[in-house]
From TrEMBL:
Belongs to the glycosyl hydrolase 1 family. SUPFAM superfamilies: (Trans)glycosidases. Signal peptide: none annotated. InterPro entries: GH, Glyco_hydro_1. It comes from Forsythia ovata. This is Beta-glucosidase 47.
Length: 106
C-alpha cells in the first residue's frame, strides 16, 4: 500500500471512527487514542451497558467536500482549525485556485 493510500485511509478511519467506534464498540480507535491520549473522555460501566444494546439506526448527513492534506507525517502550514482533534489534517475547498465543486449560497 502506498504512503498516499495509507494517509488517506488514516484520515477516513479517524473521520468516521471518531464517532462510530465509540458508539458501536464502546472504545476509541487505537489511532485516535495514540493521537489524543488522555484528552478523550472515558467510558464508564453505565455507558457500556447502554451501548451493549446496539444501534437500531445510524445515519450520516454529508454536506461538504474538502481536499485533505495529512499533517501528521508531512509538513503543513498552520491554519485555524488544524488541531489534534481533527487528526492533524488541513482541509481546503480549492486546489490550485480551482474550487472542489460549484459554490452554493444559502
Amino acid at each position: 500500500m502506498s504512503v498516499r493510500v495509507q494517509k488517506m485511509s488514516m484520515h477516513a478511519d479517524l473521520k468516521a471512527g471518531r464517532f462510530l467506534d465509540p458508539l458501536i464498540f464502546g472504545k476509541y480507535q487505537r489511532k485516535m487514542r495514540n493521537i489524543l491520549g488522555s484528552t478523550l473522555p472515558e467510558f464508564y460501566r453505565s455507558d457500556l451497558s447502554k451501548l451493549h444494546k446496539g444501534l437500531d439506526f445510524s445515519g450520516l448527513n454529508h454536506y461538504a467536500n474538502f481536499y485533505i492534506q495529512e499533517c501528521m507525517f508531512s509538513t503543513c502550514e498552520p491554519i485555524p482549525g488544524t488541531s489534534r482533534a481533527e487528526g492533524f489534517i488541513k482541509q481546503r475547498t480549492e486546489k490550485d485556485g480551482i474550487p472542489i465543486g460549484d459554490l452554493v449560497t444559502l
